[in-house]
């Protein structure tokens, strides 16, 4: 007699044992299938109730989970939600129903007369199956005499999914709810922007403080779940934060990620060879304008409503839109002797065009690099006469005919923005391009430093030129910023009058002796100073030497 065992077996084992006990000598023809069914149940894992479970699948190897509902919950509703995180999968729900006599003690089975129908073996049947990569939810009603088996299979490659089982349908939802119409509408499109709107999630209206919307923008395709989006981004060689919901908690970004936080919006830009994936979490706003897009480019937009407490999410129906084509760039006319400064977009690396109609046979273009790196392309009547990446100051002397049309095209060769100052003139009797020294570095002499003065030196040229010295008091934490953000085209006109130290003229026919020194006095003890020297040649164009930082002595 085994009746005493019923009081010690867990419910799921009790059900399985019951299935065996209710069958007496199955026929040879049904023996194999019955053993297979039992093998499937014995080699399955328990699926937790009320908890999202991550399941890892190996290609062509099925994985099984089972669950038995607690006693007293017969004929109660339950739901199962499966979220594929990559490739399409196959999954199904099987139910194993036992006979009504299963729960009688073993002794009663021996003493009672059981009809043939009561002795019928338990039956295994498939109540649901699905194949695809969409988020799918099954809603059913439980039976106290049934054991449920979930079987998952990936036939394409190794992957993972999430599974959520719940029998508590009254205490809210793990997954935020979607509106009746879950579409995303594109209500505005520009050259570099797209404006989107979507219906509010009922969860936002009920639990505003725990719910937020996150938008994902990319150039490849839409994603049916947040899990699928994160998997795709990781497979492209980028590492994501633990969840796109982010919950605004601090974490370390990878080198290929850029974080932008402004106006309560958190943006993560993941950069990879396949393009960039932009993620924006904007709280509970249901209208958003996506900035900084590229013209004439198709983008895919996905909106996820995220539960900040559980990190569970639901996906709206994704959409796509193409930004408008960029209008033909306007060509700016250059005027004799007038310098203009041009800022170039490093992201798009588009050409900026300038046009000049010559009035004389000989002309001279002057380019002064302010920031970044710039490529210069000059054509005369449609034919290339100069193509060069410039650094510092560069002049081009060109010959032609009056009324020749010169087109200057400029573009940044860096991902960051660049800027350059351009000037053109036909007057060769007054050269626009000044003579430059061999080096534009400023040298300081450590041994000549005192508590109140420093001595600096710089190289000159063989022509008479004017040199002006400026100083600026800075703090230790300002050094890097001052040196990195320095605009090499800015002249003394951008400086405060109090920063001017002196101006002097000098030159030397012998370049070996074309050097000058200057001792700047009246400085504070133990203080950092930024020194700049400007060179003014016959053309009047200022050339800025590289800034020098020097600290006066603390003790003398």
TrEMBL record:
Protein name stated in the entry: Protein NDNF
Name of encoding gene: Ndnf_0
InterPro entries: FN3_dom, FN3_sf, Ig-like_fold, NDNF, NDNF_C, NDNF_Fn(III)_1, NDNF_N
GO molecular function: heparin binding
UniProt keyword Glycoprotein, yes or no: yes
Biological processes, Gene Ontology terms: nervous system development
A UniProt-annotated Pfam family: NDNF_N
Entry GO CC: extracellular region
Keywords, sorted A to Z: Glycoprotein, Neurogenesis, Repeat, Secreted, Signal
Protein purpose: Secretory protein that plays a role in various cellular processes. Acts as a chemorepellent acting on gonadotropin-releasing hormone (GnRH) expressing neurons regulating their migration to the hypothalamus. Also promotes neuron migration, growth and survival as well as neurite outgrowth and is involved in the development of the olfactory system. May also act through the regulation of growth factors activity and downstream signaling. Also regulates extracellular matrix assembly and cell adhesiveness.
Protein species of origin: Scopus umbretta (Hammerkop)
Residue ranges of every copy of the Fibronectin type-III domain listed in the record: 229-326
Subcellular location(s) of the protein: Secreted
Signal peptide: 1-20
